[in-house]
């Protein structure tokens, strides 16, 4: 049951594989169509599986504070079906305002998340294990987890959606932002196997 308290135990660092959503929807705005995960958010969490949310409503999202980060945010944190600003505003008010003890400002929150995203590059870890987007390959989820553990020293959660498509990879970070093994008992939608659909060109989507 979510609360609005600001204390929490750790962060869930969530990246999405937009190629799955975009294999069945037109996503003309996603800038990088290679093997490129994008950010969903960095979410304060409790050890018991719950989390705080919407902690500081008076701390309204202000895009002007992110001016120097904007070019990077547009590439690394796009929304696949909404305006980017709406997505960022939602993530700030729901999750960021609960992490003010660690990131005292919006700029600090978004800036650190970009750095974490580059530091824990998911496609680099997967590529090293020959796991890449493919129309035909089916991967064992445990091989994705092992590839990320091999490179970053901690086991993530792998989320899948319809037709076993990879949807998100969740890493658990302590309050010093160091990765640790996620508790798999909190795994929501687990698949034994996943597919990683490549981005389609806009033309492909128009022909669906
Ligand atoms: P979904 O139901 O799509 O998994 O999650 C919907 C929303 O609930 C997410 O966007 C996120 O804001 C929140 N949420 C779901 N699971 C967790 C969790 O384990 N930790 C936190 N902090 N938020 C979560
Ligand atoms: P959460 O509440 O789980 O942190 O974030 C999910 C919310 O962000 C949903 O309300 C969803 O409508 C919105 N959203 C906007 N763009 C995106 C996107 O590209 N991916 C996801 N997962 N959610 C998005």
UniProtKB/TrEMBL annotation:
GO terms for molecular function: hydrolase activity; ribonuclease T2 activity; RNA binding. Transmembrane segments: none annotated. The keyword Hydrolase applies. GO terms for biological process: RNA catabolic process. It comes from the Eukaryota. Keywords: Disulfide bond, Endonuclease, Hydrolase, Lyase, Nuclease, Signal. The active site is at 40, 91, 95. GO terms for cellular component: extracellular region. Belongs to the RNase T2 family. This is S-like RNase. The lineage of its organism: Eukaryota, Viridiplantae, Chlorophyta, core chlorophytes, Chlorophyceae. The gene is VRN1.
